[in-house]
Amino acid sequence: MTDLWLISVPLDKTSSNSVEKLKRTLSKTNLASCCKFSIPDLKVRLFIICPSDEPNRLYRVAQVALYSLRQNFHLTHFTQLDLMSYVTKFQWDKAKYPTALPLSSLADIINKLINCTVCLSSGNMQTRSLNDIVRKEDLVVSEYLTTLLVVVTRSLYEDGEAGVFSVTLFKRAVCEFKAKAQESKFTVREYGFDLEEKKQQEMKQLSVHKKEQYGIFVCWLKVHFSEVFIAWIHLKGLRVFVESVLRYGLPVNYQALLLQTDRKRSKKVREELDSLFMHLDPTATASKTDVSCDIPGLCQQEYFSYICFHINTNVLEIS
To answer: Is residue 11 part of a domain?
Structure first.
C-alpha cells in the first residue's frame, strides 16, 4: 500500500535547509519520493470571505462521492485519467479555477461541480427504505394518535451512522414535536406503508430504467469521475493554501511538497520529518495524540509541527 502526504513548510532559511536535507536523505535511503506540489498564489485579501473549514467540508463531500463511485462500480475503464500521475505531476487548472477569483468563488465553483455529480447508493437512515425495519405493529394510527419515525445518531437499529426510533404521540402535538426534534438535530421521517409500497414500485421501475440506460451512464461516469477527482485534488491544494496562511501568516511564503512512500516505511519517514521540522513548533510532539481540537482544518487528524494532509490512496486504487 502507498501513502501519499502533502506537506507545507515556510520558506524561512532554517526550513529551506531542512527541505534540502530531507530530499537528500530520502534519495539516499529510498524511504520515499519527494516532489514539488504546485499551488499558485491565491487571493489573500479576500481570504476571510471563505471560512477556513469550507475547503475541508467540500473535500470530504468530494471524497465520499469518489469513494461511492469506486465502491459501487468497476471503474477500470471508466476514466482515461492516470490518477497517480495526475497527483504527482499536479498543475493548477487556471482555466477551470481562475486564481484571480477569491477563495469563496473557487469553493463555489467546486461545490457546484460536486453537487451536480449524483452518486447512486442505497442511502443511509435518512433516505433509505424502512420496509425491512418497520412492522405494522410498530405504528399506531388512530383518530387522535399517530406514530412518527425519528432518525437519531447511533441508536436502536443502526446503519453505522444513525438509528431509528418510533414515537407515538397525539396528532395535535406533531408540529411541536417536529420543531423540537429539529432543534436537537433529529430527522423525522415521513412514513406510511402505502407510501413505502409506492416507493418500492418506483424503485423497481428505476432499476429497469437503469439497466436500459447503462450505456449512457457509463459515458457519464467516464466524464464525471475524472471531473470530481480533479476537483478533489484542487480542493487539497486549496486546503494547504488556507492552512499555510493560517499557520505561517502573511505575506504568503511557503512551499508544498508531495511525499510518496510505502506504508511499511511511513513511520521512518514521519520520524525524519519530525526531526527536521521540530523547530516550527516544539510542542507538536506532545500533542500528536490529541486529535480533538477546535482549530479548523486540523480536527480528526494528527497535529505536526508542519502542515500535513494525507491523500486517501483508496480512491486512487481503482479496481
So the answer is: yes
